[in-house]
Amino acid sequence: MAGSPTHQTLSVLVENKAGVLARISGLFARRGFNIISLAVAPSDDERFSRVNLVIDVEETSVEQITKQLFKLVNVVKITELHPADSVERELLMMTVSATPDDRRGIIELVGVFDGKIVDVGATVLSVMVAGDPDRLDDFEDLMRPYGIIEIQRTGRVALPKARKAS
Amino acid sequence: MKMTGARALIKSLEMEQVEVIFGLPGGCILPAYDPILDSPIRHILVRHEQGAGHMAEGYAHVTGRPGVAMVTSGPAATNLVTPLCDAYMDSVPMVAITGQVGRAVIGTDGFQECDTVGITRSVTKHNELIMDPNEIPLLVRQAFHLATTGRPGPVLLDVPKDVLQVEMEWSWPTDDEVAASLPGYRPNMKGHPRMIKEAARMIGEARRPVIYAGGGILKARAAESLRELAERMGIPVVTTLMARGAFPDDHELCLGMPGMHGNYTAITAMQESDLLITLGARFDDRVTGRVDSFAPNAKVIHVDIDPAELGKIRQPDVPIVGDCNQVITEIVKALGAAGIGAADLSEWRSRISGWQERFPLHYDPHVEGDALKPQHVMEVLRDSAPEGTILASGVGQHQMWASQFWHFNEPYTWVNSGGLGTMGFSVPAAIGAKVGRPDRTVWAVDGDGCFQMTAQELVTASSERIPIKVAILNNAYLGMVRQWQEMFYEERYSEVYLSPDLPDYVKWAEAMGCAAFRVEDPSDVQAVIDKANSIDDRPVVIDFRTDAREKVFPMVPAGAANDDVVVHPSQKPTDKKVVQ
Fold first, then answer.
1. Residue B311: which of A14, A23, A63 has the nearest Cβ?
2. B224 and B112, same structural domain?
3. Which among B49, B113, B330, B550 is annotated as catalytic?
4. Active site residue B408
5. What is the mean predicted confidence (pLDDT) over B555-573?
6. Active site includes B49?
7. Domain total of chain B
8. Which stretches of chain A are assigned E, i.e. beta strand?
């Protein structure tokens, strides 16, 4: 995924109502749109929620997906966030096998990626890392040799980049 | 004012000026049927819920007002799925009301429970499960607003039984309250001025323009402005299956229907055009044939109220989102403001009339001893029909012959299932049309296969005194499938034979309270049609025994390019490809 923008994020403001997510996922299934990830969260206004969708732009037309989404009555606003013009973050949580020999190395890597140890067991560590999604891919690759027991990623959320000059 | 949810529902329909509900009661919707006894709204009791849906569609097609269907939960709601999908595909304004199990029972697999909003989500413009009885008026207003504005379509309201039973506080929402309750719904009516100017410029420069008029013309009630544009610039018009009647067939600029079974001239004019002025049409595969070879040298102006249609199939050079009527009017104004008059299209027009002369619709005349020619039956029906007759059809060969051989000279006289292609559409749709326009003669042209799917609604028509007329083109086959098996499967006929007299259509129709006739001899066609036209106190069914070997021509085989249109065998052109 690194390098060329093969994905694009759509930040979709929707009415906070029952069934809205089903409408969105149903639309994607029916029209054959491919999505990479989807994250839903409340917005600053309790009437609305924000859905962050990451679309595979090589498989799916962003224009069609945007237009079809906007036809849903409960969709209020759609902002296209191109990777170059937006700040993207994702949260990863992982339980990794950590023998006493491995523990030091894992803790160091978590430090390098600005992560945190969130739980410690006799033979495992639970860690969290938030960051650029590509960096999380790297982190995952580096952890794999230790033995990933469980992993959860949130999917990416994004904001447009702030203007640097007034 | 306090009232039950059921009363509020019916009162809301009254406030929306609903004059008729097509429906069938059952357990969960039962409370809503009590206030109907005291309401001025007419209720038409159907024999199957699918019939209610198609009647609502037929009513909407001819009146432009939303049709209303009301049925109970579970199997009744699932029986409504086909008409909802049909209405969705053809952008027909419709409001469906379904009963639902009580709120406390939802999700427990209660008797006659199904996830109606889940099942109908992809076949409605919008749907809502009403959980708060106080919201009934607002959600009904929303439903009618959504069904009739922007790109019209079906909207479904699912109402739990106890929501209908409990008391609520009545209050009728204002327009502003409705708008505020739909923050994400803002259909764009007015075309972009720069695009309109650009469209006018391209129209002025085109030398081989064609207006590609779709069903959106009728939905936007834009037939008049379409005619103004076409006449002002002298541009020929094709009318798609959904747009038959949007431009008069007897107009010198009318080329008729394009597409898979369109006429040669309409198909070829689009192929050869340098500008397709696409108005409320959506580049359906039945029109384009193979997309990458469709109208290869044409620039495209595409006007549609639904932005998602622009660029969905064919990338337009000038995309215009807006209401067809407003946009066409603006284009005409822009042509005037820029002083763009009719260009000299005489060369183009003469090529077109050459095709018209060489490739008119054609069928072989009747031969003594053979069954009736279905096309001939259509011609006699057409020529005998009283002024303003509305024609409904099912789906298949008879539908194509109806569209080809009828002369649609007035909008809203053609009721048909275009996008979904729903067999069994015609009888209930014709009933709905007749309810909407009781002053008009309504003919349903049906195939024998289609007729068997929904014929029971003739009982509805008889008991409700809705005197429609049905012409069954009975060739004893699923004719269109037979045609494909003949042409593309080496005449290996698989599961297409139906028998001409099982059922006995005359006896069956009579048992349903209709006048019924059988016609086998060509010399009887006229007399029996005249007789049918004279009966106005009950439905009429005519069983026309037609020739099963007749095929619909022209035909663009599925997946083929429109250049490879197959014409009637007697018209095989020596040089099919027309040189630019």
1. A63
2. no
3. B49
4. no
5. 91
6. yes
7. 3
8. 7-15, 35-42, 48-56, 75-81, 86-97, 116-120, 124-131, 148-153, 157-160
